[in-house]
Structures are given as C-alpha cells and as structure tokens.
Amino acid sequence: MTIGALRAAGVQLLRQHGVESPELDASLLLAHLLQKDRTWLVLNQDQIVESSVEKQYLSLISQRTAGLSVAYITGFKEFMGLEFSVNSAVLVPRPDTEILVEKALEWLNNKASYPSGPPKVLDLCTGSGCIGISLAYYHPELDLTLSDISKEALAVSKNNAERLFGAKRAASVRLVHSDLLDFFLHQHEQFDLIVSNPPYIPRRIIPDLPREVRQEPLLALDGGEDGLDLIRRLINGAQALLKDKGAIFIESDSEQILSIQELLKNNGFHAIESYPDLSGSLRCTRGSKLST
Q1: Helix locations, the chain, DSSP H
Q2: In the chain, where are the structural domains located?
Q3: pLDDT-based confidence at 117, cuts 50/70/90?
Q4: Could you give the CA distance from residue 203 to residue 15 in angstroms, rounded to a whole number?
Q5: What confidence category does residue 112 fall into, taking pLDDT thresholds of 50, 70 and 90?
Q6: Which of 230, 252, 214, 91 has the alpha carbon at shortest distance from 156?
Q7: Topology adopted by domain 77-289
C-alpha cells in the first residue's frame, strides 16, 4: 500500500467513527509513525510502505477511534510554536490558552523595570508546564516557578523544561508541589506575575464532555459545582502573593468571565481586562495589584 492510500484508509476509518478532524488526525498519526512531517507525506504519497507499517498505523487509528487524543497517542503537542511532551497525567495544551501567554508576555515586556531583579513568575496548576515554560522561552530572563498538586504533572513539566531549555537552564526552574497557593502563602513569598489555567469545568457537565476530553485527568478539569471553586481560592489569596504592581492572568470559560471580573474587583484588583481566544470568545482575564 502507498503512503497516500494508507492515509486515505485512516481518514475513512476516523470519519466512520465520527472523529471531528479525520484528515488532520490521520496525517498527524502517520507522520508521527514515519517520523516525518506532513509536507513529506504529500511529497511522497506514492511511496510503498511495508505491511508492518500498515499494521502499526491501523493500531494508532484504532486508539484514536477509541477516543484517545492524538496528543496522548503521539506523546507530544505543539503550543506557542514549541513541542511539549504530554501524557495522561496532564491536560493537552490547547491553542485557546496561547492568548494567556501572549498577553502575559506583553505585560512582562511593557514593565519598565524590576527593581528586585529578574521578574518572578509563578505558574499555578502548571500541568505540562506549557504556560510558564513558554513565557520563560520567549522572555529568557525571568525567574520561573512551576507548581501543581499532582507530582505526576510536575514530572512532565520537569521533562519539558529539560527538553526545551537544556539541563543547565532547566535546573533554574523551580518545581513546587502545592495545593494551589498553600505552599507559597506559608512561605510569605511574592511574585511579579502569577499565571494559571486552573480546573474550571462545572462538575455537572463533565459527563457530557467529548470522550477524548473525559480521558484527561479529572483533577485538572473539575472546578466544582459552578467551575469557580479553585478560581475563588486563587483570587482570594493572590493579593498576598503579588508584589506591588504585580498581575495575575487566569484562563476560564467565557461564561465565567463576569464572575471572575467581579471576584477580582472585590479582592482589590484594578486594571481588570479580559481577552478573546482564537474563536472570539473571552478566555483570559487579568487583574493588577495597586501599590501599597
């Protein structure tokens, strides 16, 4: 069978099972198996593949039709132009989250100075580390802390820091096992910037999520009855963790934006702004701390 015919067979199987993006997923899985890119597949579609490759590819397609995401099958997901390692201990990075990174980078770049040294950045509920590591990749001088309640997630973020930064620089990235803010509040530590993509899915709708999303860690999805349990805790404690003129950026569902803006306002934050994702839905909200 040729590469083109094998890909076409994969597309047909995915389409029959109702996979939303059969053409893209079939190409990504075949490119992963052959360790090539998608352009190579197009240029070499008449090349014959061995029967062993056919069997391996159909096995990958079978995993996808069973509801496993492409990222979990391949072990990687692109985010902010970088390739992050992922597994079932972490959420799959999504393009919608890139707006948080972009706006946080703008905020970092617009700061005139950091009188106490490099900007200290805390990525809470870090998961794969995609937010904090992307910030540090594109703003290399910052002092980065990655934190999560899951030790398995921290192992993934550590691996990504080492892969993207190299061992020497990755050693400067601090990894902290903490239930949200608890560790840092006990240490009376402060940061210039806090970023977070916390669990924010209302518990009642989790059973209705797409099958592949339900295979992601429940700990990283479940935001309580209204999806705001962890966000309330985060906002209630964030003032104590921020330096003067510091800021917090939080990802959420668009329907939660007004509630989050109100929570920020009630907790003394100002310059509150929300930003749309690629689809135009509000996805990320910023609040700033006044000088004392």
Answers
A1: 3-16, 22-34, 38-43, 51-65, 70-74, 98-110, 130-138, 151-165, 167-170, 182-187, 211-214, 229-241, 257-266
A2: 3-66, 77-289
A3: confident
A4: 30
A5: low
A6: 91
A7: Rossmann fold (3.40.50)
Q: Are 136 and 60 in contact (CB under 8 A)?
A: no
Q: Mean pLDDT throughout 165-187?
A: 95
**Which residue type does 3 have?**
I
- What does the alpha-carbon distance between residue 56 and residue 60 come to, in Å, rounded to a whole number? 6
Helix crossing, 257-266 with 229-241: angle to 10°?
Answer: 30
Q: What secondary structure letter does DSSP report for 111?
A: -
pLDDT tens digits for range 91-111: 999 999 999 999 999 999 987
The single residue listed with the structure tokens 């090349």 is: 47
**Residue 200 CB coordination number (10 Å):** 24
The chain-wide mean pLDDT, for the chain, equals 95
Q: Which of the four pLDDT bands, split at 50, 70 and 90, describes residue 78?
A: very high
Residue whose tokens read 């990802």: 251
